[in-house]
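Internal QA ticket QA-208
Title: Verify multi-chain structure generation after dependency bump
Assignee: T.L.

Test input:
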Amino acid sequence: QSALTQPPSASGSPGQSVTISCTGTSSDVGANNYVSWYQQHPGKAPKFMIYEVNKRPSGVPDRFSGSKSGNTASLTVSGLQAEDEADYYCCSYAGFKPVFGTGTKVTVL
Amino acid sequence: EVQLVESGGGLVQPGGSLRLSCAASGFTVSSDYMSWVRQAPGKGLEWVSVIHNGGGNTFYADSVKGRFTISRDNSKNTLYLQMNSLRVEDTAVYYCARMARGGFDVWGQGTMGIVSS
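Actual output:
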């Protein structure tokens, strides 16, 4: 199973929005609504940010939102803040096996 | 507080073995799906294995099938990953994670396994 495709990098100024895409196939992203997103700061464990395409766990700011269209899911971070600078990974399922995206480094300019 | 704490990482030669442990607190490992996810230095996340709740069905990524074994000890509330026939490319930080709501909602801090001669 191949990794889902994400852009290597994205950036925005404080207060702006940035959107990260996560492209898969009809066998994974397009096959179900179990898309999740993770934020990872350097040297830290990933953090659960979005589940089931567009739901936020408690404690995650509403500046983070998710969506999906066909085989592509997206994460949008609105009102960028310095602490949002991190790597972001999407995840879906190919059958019953999880598959992660390639990761996107978000830089706050 | 829900928490996962991994241990057991270290340096091993190619062909050797390591056994990773993941102690859980605040919930019961046998009640949830539990996974191992790894991250090679400077690389992305890679799912490794899952053990289901209840009957404990197990599944593996193709890259580790036949070499790694996931298990749990309900009495110790601990998850394990037995890694045999290790290769240089298995060098990574290994995270245990609870699976819920279709994703990985709780993560440990990770333990580093280095395979090198």
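Spot checks passed. The first strand of chain B starts at residue 3 and ends at 7.
Status: verified.
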